[in-house]
Design brief:
This protein is an alpha/beta fold. About 40% of the residues lie in helices and about 20% in strands. An 8-stranded mixed beta sheet has the order 3-4-2-1-7-8-9-10, sandwiched between helices. It has a 6-stranded parallel beta sheet with strand order 13-12-11-14-15-16, with helices on both faces. It has a two-stranded antiparallel ribbon with strand order 5-6. The protein starts with a strand and ends in an 11-residue tail after the last helix. One of its GO terms (biological process) is carbohydrate derivative biosynthetic process. It comes from Nocardioides ginsengisegetis. Pfam families: Glyco_transf_4, Glycos_transf_1.
Length: about 375
Amino acid sequence: MRVAVVTESFLPQVNGVTNTVRKVVDHLRRTGHQALIIAPGPGPADYEGVPVVRVRSVGMPGYRSFPIGLPDASVERALADFDPDVVHLASPIALGAVGLRAARRLGLPTVAIYQTDIAGFARHYKIRADLLTSAWVGRLHRRVDRTLVPSRTSYAQLEAMGVENLHLWRRGVSLDLFGPGRRSEELHHAWAPEGETVVGYVGRLAPEKQVRRLAEVARLPGVKVVVVGDGPDRAALQRMIPDAVFTGMLGGEELATAFATLDLFVHPGESETFCQTVQEAQASGVPVVAVAAGGPLDLVDHGRTGMLYDPRAAGALTQVVATLVDDLDLRQTMAARALTEVAQRTWTTVVDQLVDVHYPAVLRRPRASSAAA
């Protein structure tokens, strides 16, 4: 099968959209399928042997290092030349709209992955366009052949916009990378030399992630806050939480070690359609505290595999974290239950669903019996 992936974000940008695209393309390549990536530039023109077509872009207001794809005739030319069986639209907003229009003109079937709450994103960047962005997202997804959503919350959100042919498609986790065995007592001591409980966040340091909420956690006695990641909010967060450890962006085994060395993982952002870092913390054997909104509602069974808190209740985050800091047995019990559940969520299983179920459902021409050109 030939799959053209039109994505709103790709390397060198590192985020949930980029990582999901990489996992999809990695699996397609390993299983004999052919792929093409179309992404906003600048960036590498090749990914593990898969060509990457770069299109014109402009920096996002308030986050200039994040490129937004612009209308570009090269998108339709690339699709026409590659002649894919299906066009995979990864979190379509700007470049995805260009890819959708080109695919429709060429008579190519489309599968869209809903991955970014763009209205919530705009609010956090003080862009007053909630209604406009919601209308745009709804229009895009009503025009694709099939939309895949990562959570029940996202399903309800798009259903309310009149989007049909919605299907749940969650995310996998790299169980070969993340695991409790990665924990480093040496690193834990470096972070918390007085034996504090290490409470950490992993992800982009951007307004929509609401990492600033960790400032209240940092005031708890016996707690050391560790922040793993980078982004436009880093300098402000370092001023706000001066006693926290900021590691910068980590990847690969360094990231897996950091995850497993946490005593408690906290994700405070309310605009997550899924929240991959919750799964990665669970796979690392680390108990999770997450906001009771969006994707985490599907990933955390409150009181059994983690804890959820009400973001509208003053002091709720601090109260939940304090409870777990004081109860090692509860942390270990919830972490063990979550680890058992997340062990079933491999990327191989998840991407196989694309190839075996969702792509074939929209094909308009006979599918080859093997992954042929």
